[in-house]
Amino acid sequence: MTTQLSTGLEKVLAEVNQQDSNLSNYSIDDSTPKAVVEPRNEGELSAILRIADKYVLKVIAIGGGNDIGLGNIPSGLDLVVLTRSLSKIVHYVPEDLTISVQCGVTLEKAQEELSKKRQFIPINHAGSNPTFGGIIASNSNTPPFSGYGTIRDLLLGVRVVNPGGSITKAGSNVVKNVAGYDLSKIYIGSLGTLGLILEANLKISPLPDHESTIMIFSNSLLDLGKIALEVNARLFPRAIELVNKHLLDSFGRNVESSFQNFGYCLMVMHRGNSTSVSRESRHIEGMAMKYPTVKSDSFIDSESVHLWSAFRSILGGRRVIRFRISVPPADTSSSIIETENEFEYFKPKIFADPERGVVYTSIMVGQDSYLLTERLKHLRKFAEDTSGNLVLESAPTSIKREMDVWGSLPNGFEIMRQLKEKFDPNHVLSPGRYVGGI
Amino acid sequence: MVGYNLKNSEPPISMEDGDSRGYGSLRTLQDCVHCGFCLPSCPTYRVLGTESDSPRGRIDLMKAYANGEIGISNSLMEHISLCLVCRNCETACPSGVRFGWAMDATRARLEEEIHRSVTDRISRRIFFSVFENLAVLRTVMRLLRLSNFLPFMRLSRLLGFSQFSQFIPVTQNVLKNSSGFINPGGRLYKADGNRPATRKVGFLVGCIMSTLLADIDHATLRVLNKNACDVVLCKGQTCCGAMHLHEGEREKAKTLARKNIDAFSKYPDIEAIIVNSSGCGAQMKEYGVLLEDDLKYHKKAEEFSSKVKDLSEFLCGSQLNTSFTSLPDMKVTYQDPCHLVHGQGIRKEPREILRQIPGIHLQEMEDSEQCCGAAGIYSVLNPGMSEQILSSRINSINKTGAKVVVASNPPCIIQYSTRFQNTGDSRRVMHLAELLDQAYSS
Amino acid sequence: MIPITQSLRDDFIRELGREKVLHTKEDLLPYRYDAFALVKGEAGLAVLPSSTHDVSTIVKICNKNGIPFLARGAGTSLSGGSIPLENCIVILFSKMNRILEIDYDNRTVLAEAGATNISISSAVADRGMMYAPDPSSQLVCTIGGNIAHNSGGLHTLKYGVTTNHILAAEVVLHDGEIVQIGSKARERIGYDLLGLVNGADGTIAVVTRALLKIIPKPRNVKTLLAEFGSVEHAGDASSEIISSGTLPAAMELMDNLVISAIEDSIHAAGYRKDVGAILLVEVDGPEDENELDSRRVIEICYRNHSTAVKVAEDESQRQRFWSGRKGAFASMGRLGTNYIVQDGVIPRSNIAEALAKIGSIGRQFNLRIANVFHAGDGNLHPLIIFNEANGETEKAIKASVETIRICTELGGSITGEHGIGIEKRDLMGLMFNEKDLELMRWVKEVFDPNMLCNPCKVIPQGSRCLELIPGLAIK
Lengths: 438, 442, 475
Known about the structure:
The structure holds three protein chains of three kinds. Chain B has helices at 43-48, 55-67, 74-81, 88-92, 99-113, 118-132, 134-146, 149-158, 162-165, 167-175, 207-210, 214-226, 242-246, 250-265, 278-285, 287-290, 298-307, 311-317, 338-341, 348-356, 378-381, 383-400, 410-422, 432-441, and strands spanning 188-189, 199-204, 229-232, 272-275, 308-310, 330-334, 360-362, 404-406, 428-430.
């Protein structure tokens, strides 16, 4: 085995130069790779996977590295492949409202290019230099987002390097397409376990002229939940988020608002022309006025932009445990309360998207990891009993040893396992990191 | 081998222009593009969920039969006879397939080829002949009214006339309440004195309408008189022949059509032929199609058809006399008779009239354009299916809270009144003419 | 192909009851068709399940005996997706059409696969909600069929297609196992199996129930009708509208041939027959946004040489504007005895170029080609008009393939919404190479290892399934 591995690695390194000799910089959950390479073009990436498959080298690809915390402890790691040099914008005709990018293109670079034509891609990320490959493979998106759809709604097609090195395409580059199986979907959030995304075709949107965000404060999560329900049943906000006190506290330094002593806040963003933005804002304020305990504040244009970027900056940072609960939207508030009850001691920063019923929590890593694991398991049970799930997005290896990152096996797992078997029979891609040890 | 064919390798439907058996009407089947838009419109598909009992499926069966791809079988007969010919599918069809014409023609051809038992043949012949002469019909009806129906039943059962004998109890039930029959002997009903007579119209008294439901005919005459019409009961008129046509007795239907054309053409000064039964109206508006291969009558038939007007259509088209006295407050719902809405495309007019009658509150029911299951004599020939279809109508009506169902077609009226009577339901079914009549006279 | 024996039929009858098994020639005949007119199939047997359990039972019998099967809703597929090949068992969903639960708090509707598309929107209309995908056949077509073809509709442009509006599905796998994929929680764990089931033309599993998302109905709608001297101008206008930052809810383009056909048919909507093209645009945002958007649309139309732009003044005028468009396909009978509806997609900046090329195909084949399409998505529907009695069928099929080739050459797709089914199985090569297709085959093999589920559709399969439409396959 050992000789075979090194032969394989040698062959890889003959094709692509070793990137960094300090391999421990690329450790994933305490596993250190035996080599790190950075292919400069698709030919090199294809060659790497061809050799890796032949010599059964375990490969993990890294883009911006922001979401590398997602996933179980790898069952093996020989080679880290950095995709950041595959950074070409392949195709962009503004009139088509679609863009095709290589996996290593960063979100910032794409947004910058698009903004020249007053367009943008409705994806946000809290990390630094997130790449499209990473964003799609980890299905990672941060607020404000809900009104434009998820990555799943935006991705039109992909080109993929398969284990073995072949390059295939799925989907298309046009907004409507039902030709054959919709394979691009299965790469989303699959942590690169089926193939490495080489290129992605995405829907983009025109940049709206104006935006505004209303912050509605209250000590009653119940009232805010009701307002959120009403907003979602009647309006199409571009983003709607519920945040808790601890998150609001972090906001304090960034945002001026006179109502910061409340326990919760509902943030609703609209985009459009100036009249429609202010009208929708008034509409929502009107809904909020019905609740006497509620106060609101609005942020227009640059204030709103600043508000959300401040929001994202709170979410960054490495030394935290992050997890997300997905439940039926009507259970959003109860999930927040449940999370607060379990983790009160840790001052959890919570924000939730009541439109989609997803609750994101981050807490500082402490010494009490055993306590944490038990509480996480408890909360997971709550989520799963509500027909949802809890996923650890980032956690110390010690916790991952004690609990699965993904939770109970989903229905249809046997099919997923067999898909992996077909696509990656030698288990070279991100082995062991995905659902059920895939 | 996979069983597929290019469509263009199909033999063309065998029907020549001018074919005396009406196969010209089958040509419309070629317009079907299988889009399936007709499926949810079909009452039997709604109940059974099988495509052989849907318009698209029946079209395929009719085509296959016409092509000789399939022959007569019990299964084929079942699917064909289970069709109500409500023509709802024609309303739904984006390609303009005239399903009703094709079904009538197919049934005619099946009737020629099918083997029926002697008693069956005799019973059919007796049944249909009764309607071919209104005088005979009136006599039979009188007999039925006079006598206890049991001996009739026994006699007919003894003779093996199982199917048609079932009409007897139904008929008797309705007859009990019916007033004097109408005899279209050419009599003129003068317009009401209060308004100057401006128009002269003919009136089809109808077979069932003039006997079983003569009250409605009387009401219709009064309503027309109130609307400044001199109404003449043109002499020599007879049954419209719709029932004959739908049951495959195409030649008899044609004979009746010719008789009616002759009868009404003796009165050239009438500007319209008023019909108060939608089944008859639809039939008479399509005499031109029925007689398309009759060189002598074709043109006359089209002229005749162009004069035929449903009562509601006629009243709405002229200035409706709205000097009503208010009726007691009444919530009514409107059942679109199939051959009015799908056969003649009339849906607005009856509603417009209803809305003008003070005291009447029209509460629309769900799926008011769905058949009630009466469909001529269908309710007697296919009682099980008819019941199921009716039940879903009753459910719709229940939701409206209406006390009166307005349905201006004899089979619908008999269907609903029988159900209401049998279940001790206090709700009533009324013809539009009856409501108008009450509003004028009360 | 395994024949349906008496004993097999008895198996079904024993397990399901006699009334749920259709077997006479006349019972089965109508299932040879769906809305795709060029090919006829043949059903071995048809069964009428009334529950998921029934479906599972049926599939188990099929699996045990190696008999292929096919789920059929209303049979409105335009690509032959619901035509039974290989003499397969047709599983009918006409009795599984109930809406099982409406949950306004979570904005979901749980329905059986046989429920019609419209029944979902109707069920929630009084609460101001709707189910967004609205294919033209929405009065008829079923949710199961919508999932199979990942159906869109006129308002896809803004609201997306079926896959964007489905949260969960109960499916029966090849061996009869019942699996529920997804739930009311929006984020699922593991590979996106639901994403695969959507748009698979019913070839990998039988969907029995679906959990669908409902959204608020737009409060304000504004509809505009712009007339143009030429179809190229209209195409340019639509491209510019999209790139201007306006996102209409719907944008439809019709050329002169289509307009004339509509106006000569029962679907006449009062369009002017002497115009080169009509662009119908609908915006449905908040009121002031609509105002601004429609002003912008009008400006762009005039800039692109529109001769007149009309704004619908009330709902009845709006309905009239749309009635012609909705009757467009059905009016084609006015132009010729037969027609083929194509369904290709191009990048939206290329509309005028594509139209010009389609025009030249018409001239090359000496066939009239009418154009009506979803301009907002670049989803073209060239209608190739021909007369089969004149032996033009094969020529028409060839011309229709050429129009699709143009779409792929421009970087688009061979089907935007009608699906691959039978029609385009052998055209997949225009878009995908062998290796691309191999990945799809892997998916098929995982879900349906015995190749029994809706056989001979979607993926070119070599010798097992014969060439279905002579002249269609690309050589």
